[in-house]
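Please decode residue identities from the backbone states below.
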């Protein structure tokens, strides 16, 4: 199974986790994912996730001036997003425990 297919179910949680460390703009978020080993992640995948998370109320955004070009849209996690992230990590942990159990058989 390709990594991109497996990522579809967990990328929202990974994005929220990075944003929970502090305000971040889209390109910076992509670079942080790549530094974490998610080499196949591209803007065309991340920007729709950010839009969805914002629409759902999990993140908020604000436009800020940039010294290096056009204004940037910075994202921060909301209180609801913190709850969503906590639930995600609980469910992800339970799922990985089940997968690990299967590999021990």
């Amino acid at each position: 199974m390709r990594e991109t297919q497996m990522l579809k179910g967990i990328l929202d949680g990974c994005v929220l986790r990075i944003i929970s460390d502090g305000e971040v703009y889209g390109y910076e978020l992509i670079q942080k994912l790549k530094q974490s080993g998610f080499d196949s992640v591209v803007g065309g995948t991340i920007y729709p996730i950010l839009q969805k998370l914002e629409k759902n109320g999990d993140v908020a955004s604000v436009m800020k001036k940039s010294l290096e070009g056009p204004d940037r849209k910075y994202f921060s996690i909301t209180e609801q997003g913190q709850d969503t992230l906590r639930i995600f990590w609980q469910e992800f942990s339970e799922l990985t425990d089940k997968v690990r159990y299967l590999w021990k058989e």
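Observation: The chain is about 60% helix and 20% strand.
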